[in-house]
Amino acid sequence: MKKVLVTVSQASDGSYWCHTESDVYGCGLNGAGATVKAAKDDLMVCLEDAKEEFLEEGGKLYDVEFEYKYDLQSFFDYFSFLNVSEIAKRAGINPSLMRQYTSGVKNAGEKTYSRLSACMATITRELQAASFR
């Protein structure tokens, strides 16, 4: 199994882009769309095209697992069910400033990304531990 990091980001025109950080089946993969979901879907089309070409050239297929790294705009587009203000509060970030980050008005720094990463890790653990009766 090959793990491949995919960077997901919002372009200056408001569209979203996905690209692999390493080659898959001999090439870098890219996807674009009006939403993150559309960009990911386009990336999967690119993956299928790369597989087909790889097989035609005599290559042997292998399993690929994608891991995604998002900028703030892309993250909250894809996980739109998450409340930006509530996550900001949990992470110790001013909610108004966080909305500016997610709308692209301001850019978040490394410290903000670290806080959000830690916050999301906590939320992930809490969700994994939760169940319904």
Could you please describe the fold and organization of this structure?
The longest helix is centred in the middle third of the chain and has 21 residues, at 36-56. The protein is built from five helices and four strands. Helix 3 packs across helix 4 and helix 3 (84-91) crosses helix 5 (110-129). It has a four-stranded mixed sheet with strand order 3-2-1-4. It is an alpha+beta fold and 133 residues long. Strand 1 and strand 2 (16-20) form a beta hairpin.
Cα radius of gyration in angstroms = 17 Å
The helix tally amounts to 5
Return the structural class.
alpha+beta
Average of per-residue pLDDT values: 94
- Poorly predicted parts: none
- As laid out across the biggest beta sheet, the strand order is 3-2-1-4
Q: Give the terminus-to-terminus CA distance.
A: 36 Å
Estimate percent helicity.
40-55%
Shape assignment: globular
H/E element string?
EEEHEHHHH
Largest sheet data: 4 strands, mixed
Report the portion of residues in β strands: 15-25%
Q: Please provide the count of β strands.
A: 4
